[in-house]
Design brief:
With 519 residues, this protein is mainly α. The chain has 21 helices and 2 strands.
């Protein structure tokens, strides 16, 4: 191992030690399940904002999105546009009402508990259904984060992907297991700042190293489809099935983001969070797109995914290595910038583990199977769940050919279709009822599973074993499952609500109470 790599390794080790120490610090302060899942509803504005956005953006912000732009052009920037609009809408239209309603609805600690309490579901159908959906899709989502971490370590240090994957998974597991929600949010705050610094600095440095006057010429030489003008035209259709509209729809159903809204200390801090979060996401997404554009020119004549075996999703990693690792004195600084990618990965994986553990321990274990469970028991079950889910996600992520963007888009579709419509309607439609909520969640999740994972359409071809090759509906139609699932879920909610009994006076009174607090 040369001295440059040693300095980068030291930066990684220092960073990971800080994350583990934070987890250990909060371990002693985590006394009960509310502390573990919501930090006692005591987040300040800065931590809430950066924690929500860091956990939202994940490894694909610095890998998946820049890689898509690098490979296909700025038409992929519509993904960023959708993310920005979705973030703004989520903070403006969901955050305040959801925080108030979760308090009004029997101080709900989790999204499944909120839905159960909101609709007074005595049979606990919503609680069970929601928890199962969260576990299924967060396994895929957590796997995407671990996959990104494995690719990062493998690319930087040249180690086997599986070894790299194991290292990243263990570190995330340790501090999430120890400190719970406050450890996750505190580390997310640090990670959010680190991500922002990295995403701002690297494309600017690379841009001036390429030379502003040389950028378009080098892009043309790099063999981009349609030439540099097409590559830089945001209106060019890149053929991606993930559009801005679809992403906006998905935002309203993301449990790991919604739980941040629930945990903010008060309305004053929430207003502060909105401004901070919107500025952060605008800067991060803009510069993530620039990474893909500038990286195409800066790394030339190397073309990721074509002239090398390195995936286009590694464009940011390769840019940092080229900028900083040529000089031994800059290697440690380069290592810290690479930690920004690790931060993006860890900030999402830890949140996903925590929300999944809350669904299993608080909602299923205590809510259904052992209603008299003590807080300490629930806390222990939560920590055990964190370990189990991390192991299962690790197994899914063992395939080094997994696409970070692909895994994220599938999980995003699942949550957006299952929870997006019912979260919005539960906050804004007084008439929506329990049968509608159940129908919406089940139909939305089922649509995504059938659309993305079950091969139903025969291609007419056969494989080596003589079996007919079949495509999924997603492959056959090119339509993103979130759009189909969201519409079906919405229609099912409205239909079942209108043709079944109206909510009780007690439920309507709680809705009015939430509105009155807003006024």
């Amino acid at each position: 191992m040369d001295r440059t790599v040693i300095w980068i390794l030291l930066a990684f080790v220092a960073y990971m030690i800080v994350m583990i120490v934070i987890g250990a610090m909060y371990a002693g302060k985590t006394k009960n399940s509310e502390d573990f899942f919501l930090g006692g509803r005591n987040l300040n504005g800065w931590v809430a904002a950066l924690s929500a956005q860091a956990s939202d953006m994940s490894g694909w912000l610095l890998m998946g999105l820049p890689g898509s732009v690098y490979a296909f052009g700025t038409g992929q920037a519509w993904i960023a546009v959708g993310l920005f609009i979705g973030t703004v809408c989520n903070w403006l239209f969901v955050s305040s009402r959801l925080r108030r309603y979760t308090i009004t609805a029997n101080n709900s600690l989790t999204l499944p508990a909120y839905l159960e309490n909101r609709f007074h579901d005595r049979k606990r159908i919503l609680l069970i259904t929601s928890s199962v959906v969260i576990v299924i899709f967060f396994l895929v989502y957590t796997a995407s984060a671990l996959t990104a971490g494995g690719k990062l370590f493998s690319s930087v240090f040249g180690v086997d992907y599986k070894i790299a994957l194991t290292i990243g998974a263990i570190v995330i597991l340790i501090y999430t297991f120890l400190g719970g929600f406050m450890a996750v949010c505190t580390t997310d705050f640090i990670q959010g700042m680190l991500m922002l610094v990295g995403v701002l600095c690297i494309p600017i440095l690379a841009y001036f190293l390429v030379g502003p006057q040389n950028l378009i010429g080098i892009l043309g030489e790099s063999g981009v489809a349609g030439g540099a003008s097409s590559f830089l035209n945001i209106m060019e259709d890149s053929g991606s099935k993930v559009s801005a509209v679809y992403i906006i729809l998905g935002y309203f159903g993301m449990p790991h983001i919604l739980v941040r809204f629930m945990a903010v200390a008060n309305e004053k801090e929430l207003k502060k969070s909105k401004v901070i979060a919107i500025i952060w996401v605008a800067l991060s997404l803009t510069f993530a797109v620039l990474i893909g554009i500038v990286g195409r020119a800066y790394l030339y004549p190397e073309i990721l995914g074509e002239t090398t075996s390195i995936s286009a999703e590694n464009v940011f990693i390769e840019m940092i290595k080229k900028v900083f690792t040529s000089d031994l004195h800059l290697a440690f600084l380069g290592g810290l910038f690479l930690c920004g990618i690790l931060a993006a990965i860890m900030s999402t994986a830890d949140s996903q583990l925590l929300v999944t553990s809350s669904a299993v321990a608080e909602d299923l274990f205590k809510g259904v199977f052992k209603k008299d469970a003590k807080d300490k028991t629930v806390l222990n079950v939560s920590r055990a769940t964190v370990v189990i889910v991390a192991v299962l996600a690790y197994i899914i992520a063992l395939n080094p050919d997994s696409s970070v963007m692909g895994l994220v888009s599938n999980a995003w579709a699942g949550f957006g279709a299952a929870f997006g419509p019912i979260v919005l309607l539960s906050l804004y439609w007084k008439r929506v009822n329990l049968p509608g909520a159940i129908a919406g969640i089940v139909s939305g999740a089922a649509t995504v599973i059938v659309w993305d994972y079950i091969p139903l359409i025969s291609t007419g071809a056969v494989d080596e074993q003589g079996s007919v090759i079949r495509n999924t509906l997603a492959t056959q139609t090119g339509l993103y499952s979130l759009a189909i699932g969201f519409v079906i879920s919405l229609l099912m909610i409205v239909g079942f609500t209108l043709f079944t009994k109206a909510p009780s006076d007690e439920i309507l009174a709680e809705f009015d109470e939430m509105i009155q607090v807003e006024d």
